Amino acid sequence: xxxxxxxxxxxxxxxxxxxxxxxxxxxxxxxxxxxxxxxxxxxxxxxxxxxxxxxxxxxxxxxxxxxxxxxxxxxxxxxxxxxxxxxxxxxxxxxxxxxxxxxxxxxxxxxxxxxxxxxxxxxxxxxxxxxxxxxxxxxxxxxxxxxxxxxxxxxxxxxxxxxxxxxxxxxxxxxxxxxxxxxxxxxxxxxxxxxxxxxxxxxxxxxxxxxxxxxxxxxxxxxxxxxxxxxxxxxxxxxxxxxxxxxxxxxxxxxxxxxxxxxxxxxxxxxxxxxxxxxxxxxxxxxxxxxxxx
Length: 294
Prior knowledge:
By secondary structure, the chain is an all-alpha fold. The protein has helices at 3-18, 24-39, 46-53, 59-82, 84-104, 114-134, 136-147, 156-175, 179-201, 204-229, 234-262, 267-293.
């Protein structure tokens, strides 16, 4: 187990412990703030990553990349407005792969290994459905607000079981072709048990914040800094933060407007996750390219 994983476990249970002293409403507020500060930061340096991946430094190329990035974000937002069910399904699948890839990116496999891609996606999807299953009613409300369609027919406990079975089958397939997988699987099963405790014990937003920030965003920031600057240390974190600052502030400004307009309405949760979805589309593509470059 890496030192970062030990740190993540310690911080996760500390975050659960402090919720004893906060109401449901305050847990939500803290969760949103933590996601705004760290979760959004981990995707705010995508242009620098894209520049590094494509080995380009010209201002014209940077402007093109910025335009492409904005176009993808607008396209994602348009999808949520016009065909929300499809957009939400796509967002969940992309997020699942993105989360699963984060947990299994140390496993060396052949490039473009489809079985491994399916396994990573199923692992991430299992995590999301595990979270949803412990907060069925809240998730149904948010999904209905996003799509305009009742989500009452969805049984996330059953879906979690089905995805778990699929993940096990894919795991057996990967296991036959990777010795390293055998040493990683026990540790990752332990992580799933930790996630289950977090998801069951905390409010939906706070549980998602703990996972998204502690287990995904912080490790991702470390990887991005290693890729951009060659080493993870405070000096390079400062460089990373300064590089991401303008885009980070712009994202915070946008989500802040949504908050002040809709903070007293239940629809804010739906708008918040729709906003995350729109910026997730290009971020997932950039991180995938980064991993292929490593």
